[in-house]
Each structure stands twice: as C-alpha cells, then as structure tokens.
C-alpha cells in the first residue's frame, strides 16, 4: 500500500462537497436528519436515520420525518438544554443503544449557535451521534538539526480502544466546554508528552487550524457512518535537542524522532491516525516541504484541509 | 472606518456559499451562465448574462439559454481552442464591447480541466469575463529585529489603473501559461522589488496557497460584478536588514518597513488591495499573531482563505 497525500485527505474529509457534485451531495444529505434547537432554525449537525429513530417519542425531543429534523425542544438556556441532553444520553447509555456510548468519557463538548453562543454541552462520546462540530488542539514538535528537521512522532498504545497502535501528533486532545484552546494545549502537553509548561507557554506557536468533515469508519470504534466535523487548532513547537517528550500516561507507547522522509514513508503506509496525517500534511505545506512543484494535488489538499462547514462554529 | 479581519475577508471572498445559505446561493447561480468546453460537461467559470449575451451567434460558441451554458465548441486541442478564444476576444476588443478589454495585457492565463489538463489559454484581461480560475504568487518579505518583526509593504503607484495608490504585498504577480509557480515568483521578485535572484531561490519558502472567490467591484476597474475565483500561492521571505526592496518598475511608488501593528492599522483602514489584505491575514495566522484567543472569527477566516471552488484547478 502506498497512499498519496490526497488519499490521506480523502480519508479524513470524506463527506461529499456540494461544489464538486451537487447530485451526490443532495443524495447524501437527503438521508440524514438535521439536528436543531428550538428557535434556532438551522442545522447544528447531521444525524443518521438509525440514530434519529431512537429519539422518537423521547421527552424534550421532536422528530419531524417530513423535513427530516430532530429538534431539541427542552430548555431555553444552555444549562437547561445541557441537562436534557445529559438525561437523554445517560438513559441511552444504560439501554445500550449505541456502541459509541460504551466509551463514555465524562467530558463535555460545547455546541455553538450562529452568534457563537453556547447552545448546549454534550458528552464527548455522544457527539458523533449528533454530528456536531467538535474542537481540538494538535501540536507538532520538531528539532532543527544541521542535517535537517526531525519530527517527534508518538505511537498510540495498542490497547487504546480507538486507533490503537497508530501514529499520532506529538500532542493532541479535545477542547472541553469552558476551556480556551491554548490552555487545553498546555494541559495536554503535560499529560501526553511531559513537556515543561514554561517551555510550551513561551515557545508553542499557533499556526492556524484545520477543518474537515470526517465520516467514522471501523478504526474509530463503535457505529460506522457517524458524522464528525472537526476543528483542530494547530500548533508548532521547536524543541531543543535535550528536551525529549515522554509519555505522561498509558495512552502513548513510545516517541520516535524521525526525519521528514521517514514521516512521509509512514504516512504513505497509512500508519497515522487519519486526522494526525492531515496535521502532518499541513505542517509539510507550511514548512515548504510540500510545494506546488512536488505535490500535484497541492491546491486541492490545501482547500480540503480548511473546509467551510454547513454548521456554525465558534 | 475600522474594518475587522472578517470584513477584509468578505471583501475578497464575496461569492455566496451553498453551505451557509442554499437559497441565496441558488438565486445567485441561477442568473449566471456556466462556461464549458465541448465534451467537458462541467463548469469552468460563471459568466454574467450581460457578458454571455455578446457571444450569441458568434462562430465556435454555443449559447444555451435553457440550461444557461456558454460552450466553446471550436477546436479539439488546447492550441485550437486557444486560437478560437483569441480570435473572438480580439474582435470584441476592437468593437469596444467590454471595458476590461481596454487593459489588454498580451499575457495568457491557463484554464484547466478536471484531469488538470490545459483546456485553453485566455488573455489575462479577459479572464474575469469568463469567470475562470486564475493563478498568482504573493510573497511577504519581513525582517526579524530584536524588538519584533517588520514587514515590507509597497504602495502601488497612484497612476496604476487597478487599485492605484493601495497597499500591496512585497511581491505579487500572475502566473502565465507555461510558467511554474516558483519561477514566476523569482521573476516577479526581480521585476517588482529588485531582490537578488540567488537570495530568493535559497530563502523564499512556499507556505501554502490561499483561494477565494472575488466579485469585482469598482476598485478593480472595468465592469463590476465579474467573477474572479483566484488561487494565490503564498511565500515567506525573511530578509537581512541590509537588503532593501526597491521598485524595479513604475508600478510601485515606495516600500515601507512597518511593524505588525502598523500593518494592522492600515488593514483596518481598508488601504490594502483586497487580495493582499488576505495574504497579510494568512501571514498573521501562520506566524501566531492572530490566534483563536485574540480573533473571534478565527475559524471562519481560516476556512474562507482556503475556499474549495466549483471549478477544476491545477
């Protein structure tokens, strides 16, 4: 197997584009339900019919089959809506309706409206059921040597339920409700790579974000076909040679320090977790390693890494 | 006047998004004609009805009012099609049909098909009539000082027909047919800023591209409302303090060396040419000066700077 960079992008940004094929797009959309909140007449996410069906007749939810809309009708404030969502999901967790809920994290993710207002919080494991936008931070740590750049690449523990044994970015994690992106990064840098907080605060640089519309496959665990539009804030951190990232918990097996060519080889073999591959490709583009001259799909890749969603974002 | 960064993005990426408002999008599209080439059943650009009308009955062109498609029927090779396009445009230039053709450049731009094959060349000044994707290079030159970064900003000559007197990127130019992006950059660096070729070749770094769908307004000169989807390959060049860009032709009035705050002030005053403002904003994002914490429209801006077009690109 040798994957192109565009193959890797297709794996993480698998939802069809209206611009490319309006008919295919319409055919996809027409099978889904929109998630809405009362008094906010726009989609917050797309839901599979098999998921929407479970909400039929549940208190504080309205399922409209004609317009294919699932509306959260309970609550008028973020706190009230969040309470309804939590009650419903805890009940569904107990009844064992969804495999993704077996990986309950006790971590809340925010869902925003068009005015960037918090509409409600949702348990992290449940967010793909609603197809809402989630937010995370991804950091690439690298070392500049005379003979070229080296990149720190961790391998995920084989025992991890999701993407076990795959390659990752040096630090990555989700942004919980109420957390600011950079503070989330600082926390993850300590937890996942044991990086000194002072160093991270002074040297980690915000360099943009990637946005893509992931459709969950087998490697994600749980139900497949669930929709997961994601925003990942991207950071670069140049490390001195004497700072070595160390796994801070049991989620990482080990860290490799690889040349750019080594990273490219492992990318082409499909060893990276899909969204981490996207972050590496973005890094290569920003650092002049992938160029219009050596990457024939340059423009397509750059656009696909920065998708504009159908849903509001922060 | 104090413009936000999102205001500046809206100015350069003014075409509606299907994802945001399907009805508005459909209403816009429904008034336009698609440009096509025989045996390639997809749009290469959008054309105003007032422009399409002029091609009615012209040899080697077919105007389909029902499906709203203008098809170039003449020629089966790129060379043959280009000859037809040139003949038609030269005739239209003589008859004075379009003001944009008064700025005839004698410079050809490429139009590509879905397999990245060259379909035909078109005179640069005429490309907005067809609404086809055009390609360019933009370079930000900067100096690292102990007290912070300085950015070289040229002011366009007041006598320039397009965007006269506005602020620009250090180097910018269009990529002509047959030209490779980086070679186009090297040429423009000499012509526009008198930068040493060796320095540009060794130090200029490809850092991505921006893509946006510009709708021409008064400042562009000629007919307004013409559609101009553009790809600009983006480059960074850190200059030593003793290298000073100098206008190499009469297109630039003078170069300023400004702090980031000074650049931000002039951006907010609307003094930058629209797509050059977009390149500066992209620079600020990649260099950690605009962050999720200090720019409330961060995600929206990043996505809008990397639009996926309805049309094929290289």
UniProtKB/TrEMBL annotation, chains A, B:
Residues 134-280 form the Nudix hydrolase domain. It comes from the Eukaryota. PROSITE patterns: NUDIX. Pfam families: DUF4743 (PF15916), NUDIX (PF00293). It comes from Paraphaeosphaeria sporulosa. PANTHER family: THIAMIN PYROPHOSPHOKINASE, THIAMIN PYROPHOSPHOKINASE 1. Coiled coil: none annotated. One of its GO terms (molecular function) is kinase activity. Transmembrane segments: none annotated. Gene3D superfamilies: Nucleoside Triphosphate Pyrophosphohydrolase (3.90.79.10). This is Thiamin pyrophosphokinase-related protein-like protein. Keywords: Kinase, Transferase.
């Amino acid at each position: 197997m040798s994957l192109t960079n565009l193959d890797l992008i297709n794996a993480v940004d698998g939802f069809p584009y209206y611009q490319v094929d309006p008919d295919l797009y319409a055919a996809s959309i027409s099978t889904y339900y929109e998630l809405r909140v009362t008094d906010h007449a726009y989609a917050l996410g797309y839901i599979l019919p098999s998921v929407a069906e479970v909400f039929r007749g549940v208190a504080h939810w309205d399922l409209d089959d004609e317009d294919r809309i699932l509306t959260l009708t309970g609550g008028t404030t973020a706190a009230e809506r969040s309470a309804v969502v939590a009650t419903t999901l805890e009940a569904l967790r107990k009844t064992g309706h969804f495999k993704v809920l077996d990986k309950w994290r006790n971590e809340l993710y925010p869902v925003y409206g068009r005015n960037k207002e918090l509409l409600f919080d949702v348990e992290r494991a449940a967010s793909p059921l609603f197809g809402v936008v989630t937010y995370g931070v991804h950091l690439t740590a690298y070392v500049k040597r005379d003979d070229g750049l080296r990149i720190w690449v961790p391998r995920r523990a084989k025992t991890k339920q999701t993407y076990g044994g795959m390659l990752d970015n040096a630090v990555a994690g989700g942004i919980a409700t109420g957390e600011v992106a950079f503070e989330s990064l600082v926390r993850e840098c300590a937890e996942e790579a044991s990086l000194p907080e002072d160093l991270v605060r002074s040297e980690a640089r915000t360099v943009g974000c990637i946005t893509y519309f992931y459709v969950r496959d087998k490697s994600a665990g749980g139900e497949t076909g669930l929709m997961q539009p994601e925003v990942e804030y991207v950071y670069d951190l140049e490390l001195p040679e004497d700072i070595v990232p160390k796994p801070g918990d049991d989620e990482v097996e080990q860290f490799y320090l690889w040349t750019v060519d080594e990273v490219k080889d492992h990318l082409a073999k499909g060893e990276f977790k899909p969204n981490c591959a996207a972050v590496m490709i973005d890094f290569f583009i920003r650092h002049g390693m992938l160029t219009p001259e050596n990457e024939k799909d340059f423009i397509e890749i750059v656009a696909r890494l920065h998708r504009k969603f159908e849903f509001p974002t922060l």
